[in-house]
Structure formats: C-alpha cells, structure tokens
Amino acid sequence: MIRPAEEKDLFYINDIYNQAVLSEFETGDVTPVSMQERMDWFANHPAGKYPVFVFEKDQKIYGWLSFTPYRFGRDAFACTAEISYYIDQQFKRLGAGTALLEHAVITARELHFKTLVAIILEPNTASTQLLRKFDFVEWGYLPGIAYFNGKECGHLYYGRRIN
Hints:
Radius of gyration: 15 Å
Distance between the termini: 25 Å
Mean pLDDT: 96
Number of strands: 7
Shape: globular
Helix content: 25-40%
Low-confidence stretches: none
Strand content: 25-35%
Structural class: alpha+beta
Strand order of the largest sheet: 1-2-3-4-5-7-6
C-alpha cells in the first residue's frame, strides 16, 4: 500500500536512503545522511505541494518517493517537480518501485504539475528501465561529472510531460 509518509517513517526513509549512499551510483551523496538532516528535509516537503510517500507491505517500509521543487525559488519552474525514489535493498524487484512511479504520475496530475523530472546517475540502469516503463524519456546528459572512489560517471536527466 502506498500512503503519505509520516514522521514515524523517517528512520526507515533515512535507512533506505543511506543504503543507496553506501551502494554508490544511486545518489550523489557519498556520506550517510543524519537523522537531523532527514528531519529538516522532511519539513521542506509539505504534503499539499511536495509530498513524500512510502510503500508499505506487511508493516514494513519497502521504499519511498518524494516530490521536490525543480530549481527551487525560480517561479517559471513551479509546474515542474523532481521525483526521487529509493527501495530497500532487501525488497528490490518486488514491485515497490513500479507502484511508487505509477502513484507519482497520478499524484502529479492531482498536484497540477505539468512536468516530472528524474535525475539519475548513469550506471543506475534499474532506474533507467523503471523510468522508461512509465514513458519518461532521456532529456539530458552531463558526462563524467560525478566521482565515486575514483570512478567517474555521468548524470542523466529524464522527463515526462503530464497530460
């Protein structure tokens, strides 16, 4: 089941995110995020405009998805949101990502977004496949701008217009 995230979910959201940090090539962070940083992050995601959702099954959080302003503070982009999503390592390939992306597209319409953007690291082919499944298209590529332990990779911008 997908539901709005609550403060009680932040430990799981942060744990899942930090799994991605330690995996490399799943987020641009290279050091784990603290709980205080996560709480500050959550405070900047008002449910009515930039919500956070969790996928919960059998009382376990499998993953989460957030909407974030694209180019915060620049009003010309007010109808565009960046989406981010992360799945717990033990629950990958069980449908949580698919359910969260499907929910994101529906929710984007309800929030009156016209465009969704997802920014991923080039080696993250699982994310690339998931985005394409939901008609996201590669709109941009920044070659060789991220470094993880001496390994370089590009940044991919995927987008989708919302009807």
